[in-house]
Amino acid sequence: MTSASPDASLSALPTTVRTTATATATGLLTPSTLPYGRAEDVLCWLHGDPAQGLLGWGEAARFEVSGPDRFARAAAWWDQTVARFEIDDQVQVAGSGPLLFGSFSFEDDDRSVLVMPRVVLGVSAGQAFVTTVDGADPSASTQPLRSPGPLTWSDGQVSDEAYKKLVAAAVTAIRSGDLNKVVTARDALARAKEPLDVRALLARLSARYPQCWTYAVDGLVGATPELLVRRQGDLIFSRVLAGTGWRGGAAGSGRENPDDAVTAFLTGSGKNAEEHRYAAVSAAEALGPYCAELDVPDQPSVLRLANVVHLSTDLTGRLARPVSVLELAGALHPTAAVCGTPTPVAAAYIRSAGGLDRDRYAGPTGWLDAAGNGEFGIALRCAQVSGGTARLYAGGGIVADSVPENELDETYAKLAALRDALENA
Ligand SMILES: C=C(O[C@@H]1C=C(C(=O)O)C=C[C@H]1O)C(=O)O
């Protein structure tokens, strides 16, 4: 599925893109700068404290695509589109000039969405800038952030009981076949009386999770700790996570994991270390063919977030030839962290197990510029927001000795990121 034939969509496309420096202080790149509007209209990529990154609104161009070649088709559409622009980029930093936000489906046959905003506010390397398309007015008529008000919670497609059965079935399949690890997932639904203000969720997420990348593309909103790939010139970076510990109070589950035991559990557990090593090596194998140099640390580090801790490995490399961040994201997806191992066996198991429709959850989500530089995270710790409804997603890696109750707790700990943002925004 594409939104239109390439020629038809190109004729309606914008022609001029202009980036100028602004005096905006770094601390002012906040979601409250965005105009209030539908969840689907908010575009965001923020990281750090004070936050740097990109906020976008308005739709200058959109491309929807599905299929196993969706990354290549999106890259071809963007190259063709960019070639027609008259570009005046007075800043020349990461994210300046023509910019595309994108969010790809986990499975091949669901919808992936790419949106070029009409206005972008950015801060990169301490430099603030604004990009406008076809002379768009960059001054947003802002409104105060709106809190969601009282929420009603209900099961999504996969209830607590259904999730425990899904985990138990996965354990049986792992013990009896050639599957080593598979990532199962579930959802939960929150309903508010009024349409949700995505800006308020983003503000809460970026303040609480500065080490994560807070994102929004076409209503998919979250703060991911896992950066699938960054490409800037010939440098690449990827943060691989696998292995999760969580603090007490998995959202009222009654089963607690004491705070000081978490790191010891993660670093002391052979199972976690082995699973993590496998995830890091498989990411390195996907990136290797593109790289002249690739550094893979021997030992993982511990990434501490407000709700969970993870084993984490940062890969850094130098490309052997220029290649779009979209091609790199396509080569890495799906990683062992969100699919399992061996990849084809785990992917087939996920399709046949009758669990959750993932849509864009666990798919690559991020941005790219005219030269194919950019950043794509894995869409985790997220919700699909539409009107007053949010569908929250969470999952975890299942291995031969996984225990369904513990796995359910792990999803609660992961869901807490969005749950807290909804309840306290
Ligand atoms: C699948 C999720 O997280 C992934 C699974 C992890 C695990 O199994 O330990 C850790 C981080 C992520 O790679 C999720 O957050 O929904």
TrEMBL record:
The keyword Nuclease does not apply. Residues 160-414 form the Chorismate-utilising enzyme C-terminal domain. InterPro entries: ADC_synthase, Chorismate_C, IsoChor_synthase. The keyword Isomerase applies. It comes from the Bacteria. It is an enzyme of class 5 (isomerase). It catalyses: chorismate = isochorismate. Keywords: Isomerase. Its EC number is 5.4.4.2. Belongs to the isochorismate synthase family. This is isochorismate synthase. It comes from Fodinicola feengrottensis.
